[in-house]
Amino acid sequence: MTYLPRAAATAAAAAALFALATGCSGAGAPAAAEDRAPAAAAPVSLPAPRSAPSPAAVLTPAPAAGEVRTEQGPFTDRVKLTDLHLTAAPSVTGHIAISSDVSDTLALEITAAYYDAQGRLLGTGTFHHEEEGEEGHAGQPHTGPRAAGDGIDFTVPADRLTGTPASAVLSIPVLVNE
Questions:
Q1: CA 116, CA 58: separation in Å to the nearest integer?
Q2: pLDDT tens column, 29-65
């Protein structure tokens, strides 16, 4: 009876040796990780890029004739808008100075939403400005005025209006400094 535990141990060792010999022969072994095709990764879900909000279809209360309002947005605390005028062209003219930074302005966009006397949206327009550092367009240095510091004058022309504007609302959807 004392041989039973030895017999069981011998049988277990023989089974382990058999499993080791047949399981590790390489014939049925899976390919190395570098030889296997990569598994398809699950698609990454990113939020859609944010764009500027659409202008209000109707302003309530209706703005006064010739009024140019500034819509509060993520960049309005970083700029100073002065001398805002609605022209007969029609366009909005004014002056913008970036007060939060003195570096070059890589991208600046000012949009204007044009409204009639009853406050109904007639159309929009956009002004773009870029200062490309030391090398401007076609390798020429930017020597004109800069938005940072003293600022620049701008004109936002109306594009395809459906009537005669009586007022406008400016917004700044893009402001990128170096």
A1: 9
A2: 555 555 565 555 556 555 544 566 788 888 888 889 9
Angstrom distance (rounded) from CA 76 to CA 173:
9
* C-alpha triplet 168, 174, 178: angle, nearest 5°: 140
What is the chain's Cα-based Rg?
A: 35
pTM for the whole thing?
0.65
Side chain identity, residue 155: T
Residues in the chain: 178
Q: Report residue 119 as tokens.
A: 């406050």
Query: Which residues are CB-neighbours of 65 under 8 A, at least 6 positions away?
Result: 117, 166, 167
Q: Do residues 178 and 104 make contact, with C-beta atoms less than 8 angstroms apart?
A: yes
